Amino acid sequence: MSTPWHILGAGSLGTLWATRLARAGLPVRLILRDIDRLHDYATAGGLTLVEQGVASSYAIPGETPDSPGPIRRLLVACKAYDAESAVAGITHRLAPDAELILLQNGLGSQEAVAAQVPQARCISASSTEGAFRDGDWRVVFAGHGYTWLGDAGHPVAPFWLDDLEAAKIPHEWSADILTRLWRKLALNCAINPLTVLHDCRNGGLQEHHCEVATLCAELTELLERCGQPAAADNLQQEVERVIQATAANFSSMYQDVANKRRTEISYLLGHACKVAERHQLNLPHLKQLQQRLTAHLHSLGLPVD
Ligand code: NAP
């Protein structure tokens, strides 16, 4: 019997992973917040994945953090701001050889989780797959992509990547996962906050070319200073390419704000500003961007952390 995949957080990405693993015949268990969510889930009867308009349901067993039994493989699929507290609720169940896969966007939450579970191996992931919830326990697979996985402290790939192969989850083991996470964070910092402040689609930033270029210059300085020169390589060119290629899209931060949802700002722009400060780097435009975004979120009554 292969090791069960425990999935902490049955949201968009958690469901996308859980359903594909279950479809491949692999053992999967969902860990829901509490008994109320578990009852709600039991009433629904399972998770539904919608792919190209076709819905398929999977009766994946659910449990709560207080359920019995050890956890050896845990996919943490919460938002960055929930990861630390969600993991704190299940540490008592982690086996001595437990492995955690952290799907959070941005940086900062991975370090916080790893510090909580020093005995476990923590693997970070960076994904370009896209999914959203169109109902409770129901997720739409919106954009095919790739997931890079890596462990900055231990370069050997885990054997269970075979499970991802079987589940047809496109992935690659990355020897430089930190570079990938920093690069993605920098792209996010250069694009997402401005789409919120200018109230536009990604393509709308073509009219704010100078502002984007100034931010890219400061982000490049930051990446070079914090030992991530590869993540800084041709950053501005890639930002411009992404703006063009995704011109019709609304950024994830734009969508969060439009839907009055909490953003992951602390783990994106907030993290960049915190690291700049730690290195005593003066990046005035980045700092001003954070202040403008914080004021904007505050004015909408949204959390600023
Ligand atoms: P999401 O849809 O909001 O799902 C998060 C899930 O975590 C929710 O179901 C939430 O439960 C659950 N949760 C929170 N605290 C919990 C706890 N203590 N115990 C159990 N469950 C808990 O978020 P998402 O879109 O999947 O994003 C997850 C991460 O992946 C984020 O960092 C995001 O930036 C990243 N990401 C997402 C996508 C995407 O397309 N969605 C793509 C790339 C990266 P409730 O349902 O009870 O609130």
TrEMBL record:
<dbReference type="GO" id="GO:0050661">
    <property type="term" value="F:NADP binding"/>
</dbReference>
<dbReference type="GO" id="GO:0015940">
    <property type="term" value="P:pantothenate biosynthetic process"/>
</dbReference>
<dbReference type="InterPro" id="IPR013328">
    <property type="entry name" value="6PGD_dom2"/>
</dbReference>
<dbReference type="Pfam" id="PF08546">
    <property type="entry name" value="ApbA_C"/>
</dbReference>
<dbReference type="InterPro" id="IPR003710">
    <property type="entry name" value="ApbA"/>
</dbReference>
<keyword id="KW-0521">NADP</keyword>
<dbReference type="InterPro" id="IPR013332">
    <property type="entry name" value="KPR_N"/>
</dbReference>
<protein>
    <recommendedName>
        <fullName>2-dehydropantoate 2-reductase</fullName>
        <ecNumber>1.1.1.169</ecNumber>
    </recommendedName>
</protein>
<dbReference type="InterPro" id="IPR008927">
    <property type="entry name" value="6-PGluconate_DH-like_C_sf"/>
</dbReference>
<keyword id="KW-0560">Oxidoreductase</keyword>
<dbReference type="InterPro" id="IPR036291">
    <property type="entry name" value="NAD(P)-bd_dom_sf"/>
</dbReference>
<comment type="similarity">
    <text>Belongs to the ketopantoate reductase family.</text>
</comment>
<comment type="function">
    <text>Catalyzes the NADPH-dependent reduction of ketopantoate into pantoic acid.</text>
</comment>
<feature type="domain" description="Ketopantoate reductase N-terminal">
    <location>
        <begin position="5"/>
        <end position="152"/>
    </location>
</feature>
<dbReference type="InterPro" id="IPR050838">
    <property type="entry name" value="Ketopantoate_reductase"/>
</dbReference>
<dbReference type="GO" id="GO:0008677">
    <property type="term" value="F:2-dehydropantoate 2-reductase activity"/>
</dbReference>
<dbReference type="Pfam" id="PF02558">
    <property type="entry name" value="ApbA"/>
</dbReference>
<dbReference type="GO" id="GO:0005737">
    <property type="term" value="C:cytoplasm"/>
</dbReference>
<comment type="pathway">
    <text>Cofactor biosynthesis; (R)-pantothenate biosynthesis; (R)-pantoate from 3-methyl-2-oxobutanoate: step 2/2.</text>
</comment>
<keyword id="KW-0566">Pantothenate biosynthesis</keyword>
<dbReference type="InterPro" id="IPR013752">
    <property type="entry name" value="KPA_reductase"/>
</dbReference>
<feature type="domain" description="Ketopantoate reductase C-terminal">
    <location>
        <begin position="176"/>
        <end position="294"/>
    </location>
</feature>
